[in-house]
Amino acid sequence: MSGLSRRDMLRSAGAGGALLASGAVASPLGGTRMLPPELPRDRFAAAVGELRAIVGEEWVFADEATTISYKKSFIPDLRGEHVPSGAVAPRSVDEVQAILKVANTYKLPLWPVSTGHNMGYGMATPASSGQMILDLKRMNRILEFDADLGTVLVEPGVTYQQLNDYIEENDLPFWLDVPTVGPIVSLVGNTLERGVGYTPYGDHFFMQCGMEVCLADGTLLKTGMGSVRNSNTWQAFKWGYGPYLDGIFTQSNFGVVTKLGMWLMPRPPVYKPFVVRSANLEDVAKVTDAIRPFRMNNLIPNGVLMMGALYQLAMFHRRHEIWEEDTPIPDEVLKAFAAKNGLGMWNTYFALYGTEEIIAATEPILRSAFAATGGEVLTEAEMAGNPWFEHHRTLMRGGMTLEEIGLVRWRGAGGAVAFAPVAPAKGAETFGQTALAKEIMEKWGFDYAPAYAVGGRELHHIIFLMFDKGSDEESARAEQCMEEMVTRFGEKGWCAYRSSVSTMDLVAQQYGAENRDVNARLKQALDPNHIIAPGKQGIA
Amino acid sequence: MSGLSRRDMLRSAGAGGALLASGAVASPLGGTRMLPPELPRDRFAAAVGELRAIVGEEWVFADEATTISYKKSFIPDLRGEHVPSGAVAPRSVDEVQAILKVANTYKLPLWPVSTGHNMGYGMATPASSGQMILDLKRMNRILEFDADLGTVLVEPGVTYQQLNDYIEENDLPFWLDVPTVGPIVSLVGNTLERGVGYTPYGDHFFMQCGMEVCLADGTLLKTGMGSVRNSNTWQAFKWGYGPYLDGIFTQSNFGVVTKLGMWLMPRPPVYKPFVVRSANLEDVAKVTDAIRPFRMNNLIPNGVLMMGALYQLAMFHRRHEIWEEDTPIPDEVLKAFAAKNGLGMWNTYFALYGTEEIIAATEPILRSAFAATGGEVLTEAEMAGNPWFEHHRTLMRGGMTLEEIGLVRWRGAGGAVAFAPVAPAKGAETFGQTALAKEIMEKWGFDYAPAYAVGGRELHHIIFLMFDKGSDEESARAEQCMEEMVTRFGEKGWCAYRSSVSTMDLVAQQYGAENRDVNARLKQALDPNHIIAPGKQGIA
C-alpha cells in the first residue's frame, strides 16, 4: 500500500506531528489510529469494553489490523485529520440505542456510516480524527416491499446490488436508481447524502418516504406516517402531519437513521437511451440550454448527464495511455483520443421511457433541438457496443456497474476527490463554471474531469480531481487545489451541494451564519453531548 | 350575522362561560375578543401601543369593530376556543422582526396568517383564544420571476390571482397550480399548509424552493441556497447543503415565513382535460386502482380528483333543491339529481399536457383502462359547457375560480369543516374510507360530501362536513361528528394530513409521542418563549 510509505515519510519529515500528539496510538503495522481528543486512553478502553459487551467481541474494531479498512479513503489527508479511533458494528436498532448510551456516558464521538463507500468524499472516514465509526452494514434487511405501490423499507446496510437481486429474484416490475458505483453503495447512505442518479427517480431524497431515526438519547423517531398506529401509509405519503422532519436528518448529525423508505420506478414497457456527442468544450453552454426546457416540461424525464471526455476516458484508460507529460492534457490531444473512442468533448446521456408510440411522438422534438446545438444525436443504432454508451445505458435503467471505480486509477496510486458546485441549469453558468474549473485545475497541474448532472432547474457540476495518493507532493497540491476551487467557486455563488470530509466546514461557512446558528440550535436540542458525527457538514 | 344570535344564546344559556372568563372583553357589537391567558389587560394595552408605534395606528386591530373579520370562520366554535385578541399587519420584514421583539417582551402569542383564507380549516382563527393575528397580507410583493427557470419568489400576501395577473400581463409561458378558492388564497399560506392542487405541480410543497424565515428572536434565516453570497440558485435548487430545513417551517410554529420560492409549470402546447363518470358509489375502488399505475408511471401527470356527486352538486346547488328532509340524502335521490346534471356518483378528472402527437399516443391507454372500470371516459366533445367539467377544466390548467365557495351555502348559514385523512392509493382503502365516512356522517345527520385527491402513491380523502352555523344544535353536532371522524379514522391508521384549528391537538396525538417530543424540542430551540402560534399542529 502506498499509504504506508507515505505515512513513514510524513513521520520522518516531522510533518506527521499532529498524528503523534497525545491521542495517537502507535500500531505494529506502522499506521496509526487516533483517540478522541479529551478522552483518556483508559476511558476509551472502558468504552470499548462496554461496546464489546453490546455487539460481541468480533464487532468492535479497535486496533490497527482491524480498523485499516475504515481509514482507507481516496481523498488527501496529509495531516491525519480524518483518522478514526476504531469501529463498532451493531446488528440491530436495540444495539444502536445501547451504543449511543455508552457514547453519551463516555462522550465518545461516533461517525455513522451505512456501507462506507462515499467514494469521492472520504469513504468511511470521519470529519475529525478520533471518532469511532458506527458501521451499520450488518443491519441489512429489506424490511418491506409493496409491489402495488413500488415502495420499499430498508436498513442502512442494504446495497443497491442487494435490492437489485431481490427485485430480480422476485421478478418485481420496478427499477432502481443507482448512484456511481451503485452495487457496493447503501441506499440509505446515498439518500441521506442527497446523492443523485440517472433515471427519472434520480433525485434520491425526492423519492425518499419515511424514516426511522435513533436520536442520541435513544428516542426512536418514525417520521411522516411511521408512528400512526395501524397505518400502512409510512412509505406512501412523504409529508405526514406537522413539521416535515425527514430533511433535517439528511446531510446532518442530528440522529442515526436506522430505516428508510424509498419509492421505486415502475419498469416501463420500452426504454430508449440516447447520447448527444458534442465536438467542443464550449458547446457545454448550448447543450445546457437545450436540456433545460425538456427537463422542465418532462419530455426528458431522467437525470441528464453531460459527461466530459476526460471523465469518460478515465473510466477505462490510464493517463499515460493518452499523455506522458506531467502537464495537463492539451484539449486537442484529448479530443483526438476521445474521437478514436467514439466520444465527443461532451457526451450527453438521456433516455425515453414509455410505449413505442409515446417515444416515437417525443423523439423528433428532442432530436431537432439537440441537432440545433451542433451535436450528433445517437442511439443504440450507432453506439451499441461502445463501452461508454453501454455504461450509461446500464445506469439510465438503474443497472449495476462498478466501472467508475476506474477513475481512481487514472494517475499513480488511487487518489480522487470530488467537488460538486450547483448552479441554475443555464448555459452561461456551465460555460463559466467550466472555464473557472479548468483554469484552477490546470494551474495546480491537474486534469479537468467534469460531469454535469442536470436536474429540473439546477445542475450539479461534478469535478473529479484525480491525483496520485502515493505522492505527498501531489496530495498536498490536490488539497490546495481543492481549497482554491471551493473558495473561488464560492465567491461566485457556486457552492457545493455536498462535501468531502476535508472541506465540510469551509463549505458550511459559505452558507451563512444564520444557517449555522440554526443548525447549532437543532444539534443542541437533539444531541446535547455532540456525540453523533461532530463536524459533519460543519455542525459541531 | 347568525354569529350574533348564537353568541347571545350562548351567553344567556350560560354555555358561554368560557367566553366571559377573565380574558374576555365585552364589545359594544355584542361579540367578544379574548385576551391572551395570563396577560393582564394593561400589559396587553401596552403591547398594543408598542405595535402601533411599529406599524402605525391603522394597522393594529384591537377592538371589536376592526377584528370581526379575523374571527369569522366556517368551522364550529361553540365554546369560543378560537377567538383572537386582535390583529397586527406589518408591511415589511423589519416590522415583523420588531413585532416579534414586542411579542417576546410581553409574551404575546402571535398567530401568523398570509391572507387568512384557510377555508375548511378555520380561516384566520388561532388554535387557542387570545392570540393576536399576525396578518401578513400587506407584504404582497412578487420579488423575483425567472422566466427561463419558471421560478418565482413571493411574499406571504401574494394571492394566486395576483400572480396569475402578473403572468398574464407579462405574457409569461407558465401556469400556476391553484388550491380551492385560489384567487383569494396566498401561495405562501397554502404551500406552508402543504395544500394540493390540480395540475402536474399539484403537490405544492414538492414544488417549493427556498424560503426566508423570521425566527422568534428576529434571526432571518434564508434556507437552501438563500444565504450564499452572489448566488442565483435560491429558487433553482431545493436542498442546499447540510440539513434540509424548509420542511420544519411547514405546518409549524417554528418561525414566520416572510418569503417563499416556487416552481411554475411550463405552459404546454396542448392541454386536454378528461372526466370519467362512474355510476355507483362502490366504483370508487375500481377507479382508484385504475388511477394508481398511471400516476406512478406519470402517464397521468396531474393531481387526479375523484369528486363525489354531493361535493360537486353543492358547488352550484343548495340542499333544499335536492332534498327537503333533515335526514341524509338517499343515494338514489342523489344519483338521479346528479344524472340530470350530467354527473355520476364519482366524477374523476385528469388531464393530458403535451403535443397533439404525445397526447394521441397516450390517450388510448388511459381510455381502455378506465372503460374497464365501467366508467364513461368523456372529454370536451361531450362535456363542454357542463359547469362541473368547466370548473375542473379551469382548475387543471391552474385557472382562477371561486366556485367552491358555494359549498358553505349548502345548508343554512355558512358552515363547513374539512377532514382530510390520507391512505395509500389503493381501491381497498377508498372503499373502506368511503364506507366509514358515510356511516359516521349519516349517524350524525350530515351528508357525505367527498373528494379524493390522488397523488403518486397516496391519496387525500377530503370530506367536507357542511352544516348550518346559524344553528347551535347543528354546530354542536358537527363538532361531535368531526371528533368521531378523526378518532375512528385514526384507529384504522387513517390520519389527517392537515387539520382545522379545532382538531389540531387530537390529530397530533395520533402521530405518536416521539414526534411530539421532537417537535417540542425544536420549538424550545427556536422559539423558547412560545410566542409564535402556540397550539399550531398540537405544538405548544
Describe this structure in words.
2 copies of one chain form a homodimer. Chain A is α+β, with helices and mostly antiparallel strands. Chain A folds into 3 domains: 31-139 and 501-540, Uridine Diphospho-n-acetylenolpyruvylglucosamine Reductase, domain 2, CATH 3.30.43; 142-266, Uridine Diphospho-n-acetylenolpyruvylglucosamine Reductase, domain 3 (2-Layer Sandwich), CATH 3.30.465.10; 270-498, FAD-linked oxidases, C-terminal domain (Vanillyl-alcohol Oxidase, Chain A, domain 3, 3-Layer(aba) Sandwich). Chain A is 34% helix and 18% strand. The first copy, chain A, contains 16 helices and 21 strands. In chain A, strands 14, 15, 16, 17, 18, 19, 20 and 21 form an 8-stranded antiparallel beta sheet that branches. In chain A, strands 7-8-12-10-11 form a 5-stranded antiparallel beta sheet. In chain A, strands 3-4-6-5 form a 4-stranded mixed beta sheet. In chain A, helix 2 (41-55) runs antiparallel to helix 4 and helix 7 packs across helix 13 (427-443). The longest helix of chain A is centred in the last third of the chain and has 20 residues, at 472-491. The first copy, chain A, is globular. The relative contact order of chain A is 0.12. At the A-B interface, strand 11, helix 7, helix 10, strand 19 and helix 15 of A face strand 11, helix 7, helix 10, strand 19 and helix 15 of B.
